[in-house]
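User
Please review the sequence:
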Amino acid sequence: MLTDSGLAHDVYGQDPPWLPLARIPLPHRPEAAPKARRHAREVLALRRVDGELIATVELAVSELVTNAVRHGICVCGCTRGTVSLTLLRAGARLRVEVADPSRTPPRWPTGIDSVDAEAEEGRGLLLVTALAADWGDQAGPTRGKVVWCEFTPAAQAPPRAPAPRTAPAAPAVDPPPT
């Protein structure tokens, strides 16, 4: 499936090269989501990222971390594996990666019709796919997986032209007497 960016959503690309902004291990407990949101907000604010983009990234972080805590169960059935949040940047593009101990890939929605309107859960990844420019998941080399999404800043308004300067009024000159 292609995304708005024209990339296949499940392909992990290394272009452009991603520069790490922050990585934080999280408890495999419900309090991981608020901790991850706060961390993302603080890191992005320090990097002077636009407030609207910060709010969007916070929402995605919350959804991905919640899924990792709820569904990121190790093969043995325990929840001792690590959950972590990584924030990366390439130019103006931001990437969120959430790792968990499960190798089971998430069920990415294929559209609004693929979500049960009566269900009490199951809309988180739909939100992520609606907000993100690209998304996907990748199995870890030996265990676990990383679920990721990428964001680009909203198209910036063109710089406003400076207000036209008005020339100072020329001093009034009395006409010569006739």
User: Anything to note?
Assistant: Helices lie at 32-46, 51-71, 124-131. Strands lie at 19-26, 83-90, 93-100, 134-139, 145-151. The mean pLDDT is 78. The first strand starts at residue 19 and ends at 26.
